[in-house]
Amino acid sequence: MVLKKSMIRFFDILFSLLGLIIFFPFLLLFLLIGWFVSGSPLYIQKRVGLNLKTFKLVKFRTMKIGTSSKSTHLVNTSSITSLGYFLRKFKIDEIPQLWNVLLGEMSMVGPRPCLINQKKLIYERKKRGVFKVKPGITGLAQILGVTMKTPVLLAKTDLKMIKHMSLTYYFYYILKTILFLSLPR
User: Of the residues 8, 51, 75, 152, which has the maximum number of CB atoms within 10 A of its CB?
Assistant: First the structure.
């Protein structure tokens, strides 16, 4: 178990560093565009992580400044900026989270970190022991299309992923996510 965790951490560091280096020109470009569109290109939000500790998740801003901090499905779509639609469509808004992975607050693979005000999801995940692992950028729920709209199903899906996690599944979820993003929509 310790070896698996250290190997996953090794690959988290490797992939996040590579991602930040490879995507650096795009990060810079979207930071500049975001600066002109909203004046604040990054969105930093408190999320619930490992052992229920909160951390500051970094994303590209996709919603207008002043939009309330709640789940995306609860926010009026008129709050999403034109740049935000583009960033979300291609999941570009998630790229800055590679920084969270590098810092060790997240993993490449794990349950998506929830907002601190998602009480039902926090309850369901706590009940199932989901907070015993680091949250991730992708995982089984993302591949299956399970969202935070269904907290019980999401917590059950997260637990299923955690129970079967291995290096093989770690790579599988990453590759499946990359393939999913590269398919025409």
Answer: 8
pTM listed for this prediction: 0.89
52 φ/ψ angles, rounded to the nearest 5 degrees: 65, 15
Contacts of 12 (CB under 8 A, 6+ apart): 101, 102, 104, 107, 108
Q: What is the pLDDT of residues 23-45, one digit of tens each?
A: 999 999 999 998 988 888 999 99
How long a stretch of residues is the chain? Answer: 185
b/e burial code for range 129-165 (CB count within 10 A of at least 16 → b): ebbebbbbbbbbbbbeebebeebeebbbbbbebbeeb
Could you tell me the CA-to-CA distances from 47 to 20, 64, 141, 148 in Å, in that order?
A: 21, 19, 18, 13
Dig out the tokens for 103 from the structure: 């810092």
Distance separating alpha carbons of residues 109 and 162, to the nearest angstrom: 10
Q: What type of residue sits at position 17?
A: L
Handedness of CA 137, 140, 141, 144 (dihedral sign): positive
